[in-house]
Amino acid sequence: MSNFWIPKTGEELQNLASILTNNDRERLELMRCHAWFGHFFDGHLGKVQANTSVIQGKPALLSDTLVGICYQYGLVRRLSVVESTATHCTVEAERNDEPVGEVHRFTFTWEMAQRMNLVRANWNKQPANMLKKRARAFIVREVFPEAVSGLYTIDEMADHSNLSENEIDQLQARSTGFEDYRPNNSRPPMNRTPSTPPEPVQKKTELNEINDLDADLSREYRKLNSENDFFEVTAELGIDKQEVIDKCKAMKFDLANASANDRVEFLYSCIVHDVIRQSTFIPHDWQSMSADHKVHFHLGFSTQYPILKEVPIDWYQSRVNMPAFAEMLQLTNELTPAHYDQVLRAMQGYPANDWRLFDYVECILDVLDPVEDEDEY
User: Are residues 246 and 115 part of one domain?
Assistant: First the structure.
């Protein structure tokens, strides 16, 4: 089956690039990236846009994409982050064509970053994430040179350019996966024109729900038509019934007589997240509290959902109460940390109420643990 986003001719490439951006320079840069890197993404122009940038005329890749290319070549037996802190990151790699147990190991430290004059704003905001990106990029280039030799990441290219500090910070933010983060609790506008229909991995931007015809925004995932339905769901989620009753009393919520829609809203805003449910008192507008108070909530969220550990709470606080996003978070607890980066990128490719993100994570889990259909045999 043909894919609309895979151009077959130069003319189709130009037309698709014009759909993805109305900026002439960006359109030419996207076409250049497609020429350089399109074969890594089966020619899919949306994925090329999601994983590349042109820095002073030179195409570059996201650091996670380097890792993906090594897997795509079938060279990787194991590639693991064995230790990650704000001061150092250690990664290990094993090749499929080398004896089992032959391990390549590399550690990148904060001191190394300082000596290389790499430390800028985003390094201070997300030190562990930045160290991890550099450590993984270094080891894949050393251990799998036939796959990624000569390929450089966006942040590596930015660090060796003569761009302004602000431009470098923006590129580093894109490389870490949180380029739409806004400080001081401000939220990105919700009605920007989308650059492309969302793909599992794509350029990170809020999408205009009206214009995104493929968005899945109205799915009824949990039917809570009665009080019994509500308790069945919470039991399925492993939540103690008495905790639910206590929270209803604390919030003065009449579970028995509430509407189905109100039950759904109450489930995701007050029950599913441990830190919210277990807090004896929490205002409805907790998202607007001071940064100091939010430290407690971030610790609670990242304990329940480890994938959020390095995600700024100001980015996810407005999303966690939306059913699609909340259910997706539940699924991420079944993933290994090796898959966090690709899911974090996908999180930023969809509106928080778009169920396609949930489906995307389910697909990853299906690949990791396929269920055979006995009727097929």
Answer: no
